[in-house]
Write a structure and sequence with these properties.
single chain; 1146 residues; alpha+beta; nine-stranded antiparallel beta sheet; elongated; nucleotide-binding; EC 7.6.2.1; ATP hydrolysis activity; HAD-like_sf; metal-binding
Length: 1146
């Protein structure tokens, strides 16, 4: 029986007693049930309606509906508002319910997983949701960890531990830290993160283990890092809310003007009719008549913002989402995964992104390392059939230098010692399910690559115990006694092992950053160190991750003395880590240099090209990673975020507030000085670029309230920003601070559970469906399998979605102002009586039938340039970032055009028909003839206008535009027919009006005249604008592909697959490791637990860097060079880039 007491130093203490649920339930600790859904069956309707009526437009239409139910006010039937309102609310509710259903499904899948819990002395199966704090759980190999557990025992040797009392920290979101003390038999033992198994991890390489639940459900570190689900809305949605308020104010002003007119008319003119036409009850004076008239006109004029606008927006967004889902060019054949738009509300925001925040591992990289080069005893070896020499070789391993293999075969002692070190100095676990079939489980891919290299050269790591390592050396099995592991950490930047071979010789093997390891070499290594340094510089020039190897022989006395000092440091309760570091430093001296390794970190396919193209689109990419600084910087060079052409890469690594502030201010001063100096440089020179690298401990200070502004200003002035060693919550905070200070659209992309918080915080979250599970995908708005698809998502789908939505909104407001304002002008000629110009059925059908489908077709299918041009010319993306296509200015232009059209549509027919007569001599100046003429002219004018606005015609566009015109005439003739009048005489008052009106030639001349007056100024303005001030998209429509300025796609298509990241030796990686501290102690203790490692596919992305450099220089040119330079540059680009055939998709 185990008794545990966990004290939480918050408001109250936490006490946990193992296997005693009755005792633990008194404290009401959180259960292990998680819930990410928003609704349940009971709360869905009220909560969803409450959320929907937070939209200004929905509340506005509800208010209008209430007004229309008052007969003394409304001159329109109530169904003209309630039907579209119910339709909008229903469509949105169904969409929200569907989204929440999948959240419930995901929650149920997780909560119903099975665990083995010790209950009443026996193991019983329990669902995850029923696990409680204090339960003891048995986990088996490859099972997910159900909650945050304190490891009690495992199947590994020497792993049993007994617990009486534990004092630990309260629930928090720090994944890499756990502090506590174990009390047992009046002794204290320190507990750290290595004693914990965190929810969401997977048990590896261990048959079983037992753990005590410390934190459950929402208290677990994983859930503490997830962040809250935020309701995301686009900038266009927010702008539309503002515009609706403005329009409502405009509507009120028009109503007041007409109400005042009604009061004046009733007092001056209407009073003359009182003797034979009295006011309707309850009106008894002209002021009350004006009051009712005001509300009547509010109802009549409400179509300036019809509710069909919101239905159409949802339909368009749904169509855009399907285009993303159906895009075959975003389908990954390797994993059979298609792109998925998991939301329908953010598509146009994809066309306005300014900042991308990306995870590194699994997002930019495949996290696959390959052993490319090495230097042994001053001899460089470069990139063999291994299987003929070594049957245990890995068939996927490639290394192209037979000289090294021959050196090993011939027994060269340096070569053999080199690979012996690689086979012994690591924390890799080995599985051998059948003879010769080895599977390595490495905590970092670097370690896996190095051990695999040793394996292929004949030094095969076979197995380990807490005290031994077994290696097959050139076919002979050798077991070494593992005396100590001197573990890696960020300060040491190296790791060592001390082993005793079967002959009794004790040797220390060390591998680490060359900058630190060279300082600890014996003086006799000076010449060899210089040669090796040259080799390292060459490798660094190829963008490879370098590592130095050394050894030291120890006497038995030296070992015994050091072992005792290490034992005392390990058991110290205060400053334990510092004491251990001092002992490590003492033994790692006077080492003999063996050589160096060079590893290639393989990027995902197309990452450098994607980053380069997105940079040309004025999108800034920040990398937020939990990896160490050297690893992150290496990837920065590999994917061309960092280049040797940069003026400076600022490193912010201070541990105190003051040091971080000083480093940021120095960077800021350097940036300002560079800008000032650039004014004195030659006119056509390109100023240098800067990058910023900041560590997690420094970022914690930089994000404090009094420093975050300074951090944002400095970081945003740099072309590239890399944040390393950051926690999941820090990732979210970085995104939040950019949203706060820059007011820019942000996108976060990642593939793991540690990216969920960042994905939820950004305006747009993208999940990579990779090797780290589906947590990121479940939290995302969009998902696909490769980072390279991001450029297509933004530059094609995002840009088109933004363009289509903006054109849709501009046209929609135009056509509705043109339709509605005719009522306003008519008010001055009908005694301000709130009489409508049109038949009420025309008013009802105008937005639903006559003009809905053409604008929907434009909003779904329209293009300004083909998809290929969108990728060739990333600058086409910038109008969305600058919000140029739909803003307050464009809105006022649209309504001004609509008001102008309404003036023409009212006054031209009024002027012509007022004095006109039929062929029989009868006058044409009657209300119904005027109504039919104006309605027909309106439908024709807006149809011609959308034909002009449509940039890309499909068969659907033609069918909808011309079909809507035909539908209008068909319905109008049917509505005005005698047959319907005979059936419903009180409903259809325009009997025979269209039939008698549309046969008059004068009516058609009037319609034609009104159409010409409305359209000709628009055509003239557009031709002048196209000629005098064309947009980039206008020029690219006419420019042949591959000509003129030159497009990037030709360069991308023709790229060779070469190594990434050409850079000088001065920027050489100091250390290739990407693993964490503590795994050496884990191995020697026998608690051989492993988190799930990434099973990634083999791929190396290679390219020529010249095209990217050319494009970047072109992007950052701030002046116009002479014409001769333009011509020569143009010719160079034409010869460099291959033209692409012009294609369009629908």
């Amino acid at each position: 029986h185990v008794r545990v007491c966990v004290l939480v130093f918050t408001e109250e203490e936490r006490r946990v007693r193992a296997n005693d649920r009755e005792y633990n339930e008194k404290f009401q600790y959180a259960s292990n049930c998680i819930m990410t859904s928003k609704y349940n069956v009971v709360t869905f309707l009220p909560v969803n309606l409450f959320e929907q009526f937070q939209e200004v437009a929905n509340t506005y239409f509800l208010f209008l509906l209430i007004l229309q139910l008052i007969p003394q006010i409304s001159s329109l039937s109530w169904f003209t508002t309630i039907v579209p309102l119910v339709l909008v609310l229903s469509i949105t509710a169904v969409k929200d319910a569907t989204d929440d259903y999948f959240r419930h499904k995901s929650d149920n899948q997780v909560n119903n997983r099975q665990s083995q819990v010790v209950i009443h002395g026996s193991l019983q199966k329990e669902k995850w949701m029923n696990v409680r704090v204090g339960d003891i759980i048995k986990l088996e190999n490859n099972q997910f960890v159900a909650a945050d557990l304190l490891l009690l025992s495992s199947s590994e040797p020497h792993s049993l531990c007994y617990i009486e009392t534990v004092v630990c920290e309260p629930p928090n979101n720090k994944l890499d830290r756990f502090c506590g003390l174990l009390y047992w038999r009046e002794c204290k033992y320190p507990l750290n993160n290595q004693n914990m198994l965190l929810r969401g991890c997977v048990l590896r390489n261990t048959e079983y283990c037992y753990g005590l639940v410390i934190f459950a459900g929402p208290d677990t570190k994983l859930m503490q890092n997830c962040g809250r689900t935020k309701f995301k809305r686009t900038s266009i949605d927010r702008l539309m809310n503002t515009l609706v308020l403005w329009i409502f104010c405009f509507l009120v002003c028009m109503g007041m003007i007409l109400a005042v007119g009604n009061a004046v008319w009733e007092s001056e003119v209407g009073s003359l009719f009182q003797s034979f036409l009295d006011w309707d009850l309850p009106v008894d004076n002209f002021l009350f008549s004006a009051f009712l008239s005001f509300w009547s006109y509010v109802i009549i004029l409400n179509t300036v913002v019809p509710i069909s606008l919101y239905v159409s927006v949802e339909v368009i967004r749904l169509g855009h989402s399907y285009f993303i889902n159906w895009d075959r060019k975003m389908f990954c054949t390797q994993c059979s995964t298609a792109a998925e738009a998991r939301t329908t509300t953010l598509n146009e925001e994809l066309g306005q992104v300014e900042y991308i925040f990306s995870d590194k591992t699994g997002t930019l990289t495949q996290n696959i390392m390959s052993f490319n080069k090495c230097s042994i005893n001053g001899q460089a070896y470069g990139r063999l059939d291994f299987l003929s020499f070594n049957p245990l070789a890995d068939p996927d391993f490639c290394f192209y230098d037979n000289a090294l293999l021959e050196s090993v075969k011939l027994g060269d002692p340096h070569s053999q010692e080199f690979f012996r070190l690689l086979s012994l100095c690591h924390t890799v676990m080995s599985e051998e399910k059948k003879e010769g079939e080895l599977v390595y489980k490495a905590q970092s891919p670097d370690e896996g690559a190095l051990v695999t290299a040793a394996r292929n050269f004949g030094f095969v790591f076979r197995s380990r115990t807490p005290g031994t390592v077994t290696v097959t050396e050139l076919g002979r099995s050798v077991t070494y006694t593992l005396l100590a592991i001197l573990d890696f950490n960020n300060i040491r930047k190296r790791m060592s092992v001390i082993v005793r071979n079967p002959e009794g010789r004790i040797r220390l093997y060390c591998k680490g950053a060359d900058t630190l390891l060279f300082e600890r070499l014996h003086p006799s290594n000076h010449h060899l160190m210089n040669i090796t340094t040259d080799h390292l510089n060459e490798c660094a020039g190829d963008g490879l991750r370098t590592l130095a190897l050394a050894y030291r022989d120890l006497s038995e006395e030296q070992w015994e003395e050091w072992s005792e000092s290490h034992r005392l440091a390990d058991r110290s309760t205060d400053c334990r880590e510092d004491r251990l570091a001092a002992t490590y430093e003492h033994i790692e001296q006077d080492m003999m240099l063996l050589g160096a390794t060079a590893i290639e970190d393989k990027l995902q396919e197309g990452v450098p090209e994607t980053i380069a193209i997105l940079s040309l689109a004025n999108i800034k990419i920040w990398v937020l990673t939990g990896d160490k600084q050297e690893t992150a910087v290496n990837i920065g060079y590999s994917c061309k975020m960092l280049t040797d052409d940069m003026t400076e890469v600022f490193i912010i690594s201070g541990y105190t507030v003051q040091s971080v502030r000083e480093e940021l201010r120095w960077a800021d001063i350097t940036l300002v000085t560079s800008v000032e100096l650039s004014l004195f440089i030659l006119l056509y020179s390109i100023s240098g670029e800067f990058a910023l690298v900041i560590n997690g401990h420094s970022l914690a200070h930089a994000l404090e309230a009094d420093m975050e502004g300074e951090f944002v200003s400095t970081a945003c002035a740099c072309r590239a920003v890399i944040c390393c060693r950051v926690t999941p919550l820090q990732k979210a905070l970085v995104v939040e601070v950019i949203k706060k200070h820059k007011k820019a659209v942000t996108l976060a992309i990642g593939d793991g559970a540690n990216d969920v918080s960042m994905i939820k915080t950004a305006h747009i979250g993208v999940g990579i469906s990779g090797q780290e599970g589906i947590q990121a995908v479940l939290a995302s708005d969009y998902s696909f399998s490769q980072f390279r698809f991001l450029q297509r998502l933004l530059l094609v789908h995002g840009r088109w979605s933004y363009l289509r939505m903006c054109r849709f909104l501009c046209y929609f407001f135009y056509k509705n102002f043109a339709f509605t304002m005719v009522h306003f002008w008519f008010g001055f000629f009908c005694g301000f009586s709130a009489q409508t110009v049109y038949d009420q059925y025309f008013i009802t059908l105008y937005n639903i039938v006559y003009t809905s489908l053409p604008v929907l077709a434009m909003g779904i299918f329209d293009q300004d340039v083909p998809e290929q041009r969108s990728l060739e010319y990333p600058k086409l993306y910038e109008p969305g970032q600058l919000n140029l296509l739909f803003n307050k200015r464009e809105f006022f232009i649209c309504i001004a055009q609509g008001i102008y059209t309404s003036i023409v549509l009212f006054f031209v027919p009024y002027a012509v028909l007022s004095q006109a007569s039929q062929g029989t001599g009868e006058p044409l100046a009657d209300y119904q003839t005027f109504a039919v003429t104006t309605a027909t002219a309106l439908v024709i004018v807006v149809s011609v206008q959308i034909a002009l606005d449509t940039g890309y015609w499909t068969a659907i566009n033609h069918f909808f535009v011309w079909g809507s015109l035909g539908t209008f005439f068909s319905i109008m003739l049917a509505m005005h027919s005698e047959s319907l009048f005979s059936i419903f005489p009180k409903q259809f008052h325009f009997v025979g009006s269209s039939q008698s009106t549309l046969v008059q030639p004068l009516v058609w001349l009037t319609i034609a005249l009104a159409t010409v007056i409305c359209i000709v100024p628009v055509l003239a303005f557009r031709f002048l604008k196209l000629d005098l001030k064309p947009q980039l998209s206008d020029t690219k429509k006419r420019k042949p592909a591959g000509r003129g300025m030159g497009g990037v796609r030709g360069g991308v298509g023709g790229m060779s697959e070469g190594r990434l990241g050409m850079r000088g030796g001065s920027r050489r990686s100091g250390y290739a490791f990407a693993h964490q501290e503590g795994f050496g102690e884990l191995i020697t203790s026998g608690k051989n637990m492993r988190l799930s490692s990434l099973a990634l596919a083999n791929f190396a992305s290679r390219h020529s860097s010249s095209w990217i450099d050319t494009l970047r220089k072109k992007k950052h040119s701030t002046t116009h060079p002479p014409q001769s330079l333009i011509m020569s540059h143009d010719l160079a680009l034409r010869s460099h880039f291959k033209p692409f055939p012009e294609r369009r998709i629908t």
